[in-house]
Amino acid sequence: MTTTRRLTEAEWRTVQEETAPAPPPRSSEGARERVNRRWQEVLQETRVAQTGVQILFGFLLSLAFTPRFRELGSFDRGLYVVTVVLAASSTAALIAPVTLHRCLSGQRLKDEVVTAAGRLMVCGIVLLALTVACTLMLILNVVLGGVLPAGIVVGGVMLWFALCWYGAAYRVRRRAQQRIRER
C-alpha cells in the first residue's frame, strides 16, 4: 500500500509551473491593431449594456400607462420621473460611443474615440446602476409599503452591484499584481 502526502503550496506552484504550457510569445500587435481591438471590445461591451438599459427603459415607459400608476403618491411619481430621466441618460451615454465613432469616422482619431467611448461607457454604467436602484426603490416602496424597508433592500442590492461590478475587478487586479511581485 502506498501513501501519498499533500504537496505544500510552494511545491504545488512549482508543479503547475513545470507542467503549464509555455506562454505564447509576446504578440507584435502594432498601435493600429491595438486600437482596433480595443474598439471591438468597447463595441461588444456596449451591446451588452445597451440591451439591459433598453429593456429597463421600455418597462419604465410602459409603467405610466397602467391603471395603478394613477394611485401612486407624489413621492413615487417624483421617483418615477427621476428613474425615467436616469434611464434615458444611461441610454444616451451607452449609445454615444457609436454616434461618436460615426461622426469622427475617417478622421484618424480612433485612439481618441476609443478613450472617449470608454469614459462614456463608465458614465452609462453608473447611470444604469442608479436607474436600477431607483426602479427597485419605486417597486419595493409600493410592494413593501414604506421607504425604509425598500431603502434597506435597495441598499443591499446596490452593495451587491458594487461587489460584482467593481469589487471583483479590483480583486482580480490585486491578485495579478501580487503574482507579478512574487516573480
UniProtKB/TrEMBL annotation:
<feature type="transmembrane region" description="Helical">
    <location>
        <begin position="78"/>
        <end position="100"/>
    </location>
</feature>
<keyword id="KW-0472">Membrane</keyword>
<dbReference type="InterPro" id="IPR046291">
    <property type="entry name" value="DUF6328"/>
</dbReference>
<keyword id="KW-0812">Transmembrane</keyword>
<protein>
    <submittedName>
        <fullName>Membrane protein</fullName>
    </submittedName>
</protein>
<feature type="transmembrane region" description="Helical">
    <location>
        <begin position="120"/>
        <end position="144"/>
    </location>
</feature>
<feature type="compositionally biased region" description="Basic and acidic residues">
    <location>
        <begin position="1"/>
        <end position="16"/>
    </location>
</feature>
<feature type="transmembrane region" description="Helical">
    <location>
        <begin position="48"/>
        <end position="66"/>
    </location>
</feature>
<feature type="transmembrane region" description="Helical">
    <location>
        <begin position="150"/>
        <end position="172"/>
    </location>
</feature>
<keyword id="KW-1133">Transmembrane helix</keyword>
<dbReference type="Pfam" id="PF19853">
    <property type="entry name" value="DUF6328"/>
</dbReference>
<feature type="region of interest" description="Disordered">
    <location>
        <begin position="1"/>
        <end position="34"/>
    </location>
</feature>
